[in-house]
Specification:
The chain is α/β, with parallel strands linked by helices. It is built from 4 helices and 40 strands. The chain folds into 2 domains: about 100 residues, Udp-n-acetylmuramoylalanyl-d-glutamate--2,6- Diaminopimelate Ligase, Chain: A, domain 1 (3-Layer(aba) Sandwich); about 220 residues, UDP N-Acetylglucosamine Acyltransferase, domain 1. The strands form 7 sheets. It has a 12-stranded mixed β-sheet, with helices on one face.
């Protein structure tokens, strides 16, 4: 990951924003308030954070600031326009987090290079590219990558070392596939998709039937379609459909070690956390949120804006805007009440035993 450097004035101009402070301060990297170093750019969601960045000795309240301590003259902050402070180098933004993200793209190049390729595009000598493959402009293919026949890859896409793209798959523009990703036959990847190392797109779904006690395989003949601006985490698996299409819709983000079964449709802008499993033929609406180690059982219809907290399991169809917890999943407030009662079971059992003991004693006395 390469880095660039801008003066405070240059960076503000690049971002199209106003600033105050030292025009010539060199900004070299983005960081958090807890990791400030010289040339760093952090952001504040509250002006209270200014108190954690000392000003130079002699300027204000921090007269004891040491030479080695980072102070406001050495760093810059992205803040909301209502924050004004002459002792700090500030860039003003209505959305400091979003601006900080944009600055990170300017200061840190996140486009991965390819060992052995000096230019912006090209195929590493050890890669295997079948005849008839269509590569767009500025495509980079890394060491030991394998591209089967009939594949199409769009402009500015990077395939890192060991990536395998199988027959007739289609990869869009501006995608990054990290080492050892596998995209199987006929699957379709949209534009600006990021797939992290070890993910498998288009593996067979878990389809079997039994005859005379023997498990027999059901052929999985469909594909996976991943729409634009999706990110797929490391070692995540998305199974191909039995007949038609498993779909991950636009803008959704899947964490590491997620399992998406065959025939699933995940709606736009989903956030799915690690070690989550979505069962076969689930249809989920937009803005689904699944906490870590949660799940959805097969053949469930999930509404829009539904959230399952960590370790929750959605076992039945939901309405829109539900927040669910537990197994089986139920409204989160109800689940929390049940958890509270479960935590009191020991106390309740003790009370019952004492009441039973008193009742028994009363009977003996009578």
């Amino acid at each position: 990951m390469s880095k660039s450097s801008y003066s405070l004035k240059e960076l503000a101009e690049k971002l199209g924003l106003k600033f105050s402070g030292n025009d010539d301060l060199q900004i070299t990297h983005v960081c958090g308030l807890d990791s400030l170093q010289t040339g760093g750019l952090a952001y504040l969601t509250s002006p209270d954070g200014l108190a954690s960045v000392p000003v130079p000795a002699g300027m204000s309240r921090h007269a004891s600031t040491t030479v080695d301590e980072i102070n406001s003259s050495q760093v810059a902050l992205v803040v909301s326009p209502d924050v004004q402070h002459p002792e700090h180098n500030l860039i003003f933004s209505d959305d400091p987090l979003s601006t900080h993200v944009e600055a990170s793209k300017l200061l840190h190049s996140i486009s991965p290079g390819i060992p052995g390729l000096s230019g912006k595009s090209g195929v590493h000598p050890s890669a295997v590219v079948s005849k008839g493959v269509k590569l767009g402009k500025n495509v980079k293919v890394g060491p030991k990558a394998v591209i089967y026949e009939g594949v199409q890859i769009g402009d500015n896409t990077t395939l890192q070392a060991g990536v395998v793209i199988m027959s007739e798959a289609v990869i869009g523009t501006d995608c990054i596939l990290y080492p050892n990703v596998v995209v199987q036959d006929k699957c379709q990847i949209g534009n600006r998709v990021i797939i992290q190392s070890g993910a498998v797109i288009g593996s067979d779904g878990h389809g079997y039937f039994q005859r005379e006690g023997v498990n027999l395989k059901i052929p999985q003949l469909g594909i996976v379609q991943i729409e634009d601006d999706v990110e797929v985490g490391a070692c995540t698996t998305i199974d191909r459909a039995r007949f038609h299409t498993t779909v991950i819709k636009q803008g959704s983000k899947l964490d590491n070690q997620v399992q998406i079964a065959h025939n699933v449709s995940v709606g736009e802008q989903a956030l799915i956390s690690a070690q989550t499993a979505v069962g076969g033929s689930v249809k989920a609406g937009h803005h689904l949120i699944l906490g870590g180690q949660s799940g959805i059982r097969d053949n469930v219809q999930v509404g829009n804006n539904v959230t399952a907290v960590a370790r929750a399991v959605i076992t039945a169809n939901t309405q829109d805007n539900e927040v669910l917890g537990g197994m089986p999943g139920r409204p989160v407030n109800q689940w929390r009440q049940l958890q509270s009662l479960i935590n009191r079971l020991g106390e309740l059992f003790d009370r019952v035993r004492k009441l039973e003991s008193r009742t028994d004693s009363s009977k003996e006395n009578n």
